[in-house]
Every structure is written in C-alpha cells, then in structure tokens.
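Input.
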Amino acid sequence: MEKLPVPDEIQQVKNFRFLRVKEQNTTFYFICNNTVNRTVELDIGFKKIAAVFFKHEIPNEAEVEYAINCIEDELMQNKDLVNDNEELYTDAEFIIDILNVQPNSTKYYSRQDVEEVFTKYALLSMGHSPVYDDIKMDKEEYAGLLILREIMHHLNYTNLAVINNGINGK
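Output.
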C-alpha cells in the first residue's frame, strides 16, 4: 500500500480518511490505527472535470452545474464514502495553493470555510471580476475545489485538515 505523508500528530488519530483529488481520479484512503485498510477510487479528477465540463477559462454557471451533477452522481454511487464520524485529511497541492497553507504545517478548515472560498469562485461564474477578490483563476483548481466542496457537503464532512509537508500530492 502507498505510504501517505501524514504528520506525527495526525498519526495519533485512530480512524480517519485521507483524500487525494488527482488529475483523473479521486481516491479515499480508509485509515485505521495508522494502516490503510482499503481505498476507494472515483472517476472524478480535477483535470478530467475541467476538460469535460469547463469550456470557458472562467466556467459559466451551466458548466459548473453540469460538473456538480457529475460529481454528485459519482459520490452517491458508493454509500461507504459517507462520513462515519471520521476526520478528513488531504495534501492536494491545489487545495494548499487555494487555501494558502504554509509549508510544514497542517491547517484545519470547517465546511463553511471551504464553502466561503468556493463562493468566491462561483461569483466569477456569475460575472464578477477576479480582480476584486484577488483570485488567480485556474479552471483546474476551480474543478478541484468543486470536487472537495461536493465531498464535504454530500458525504457529511464538517472539517478538513490540509497538510503541507513539502512532498504533497497533486
């Protein structure tokens, strides 16, 4: 099994899920007592979602809605993914960039925090200028953030720990 870059303080958590949102797919690692018990791979990745649904550099509302429908369909196919009172961790590089997590640190975000960041991107899709919110628009990062938001919302995660240890996964 793949060795995950989990800091010592997180290794003390008995059960948690580690999330990798990758270019072509998304993988959940089910961790129990510091061991990967199983993985679930979904057919949604940030490059794939951006390529299939985002035809404009700043995706319009319809493109975002179609992407949401696809992500929701993929998430709902596997009921084992619904949070069972576990913590959610990730080291996805685009999330580290969007949330500005400093090197060698772990930052915690609520579902509401992630929703507020997503709202800034959603406003761009509704015609707001990225200059006002100081957002560097990247449709692949937007797709990755959308995947993360849908995971937190539909799978009932209330918090997310973002790990930046310098060897992060994309």
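Helices lie at 8-11, 46-53, 61-76, 93-99, 111-125, 130-133, 139-154.
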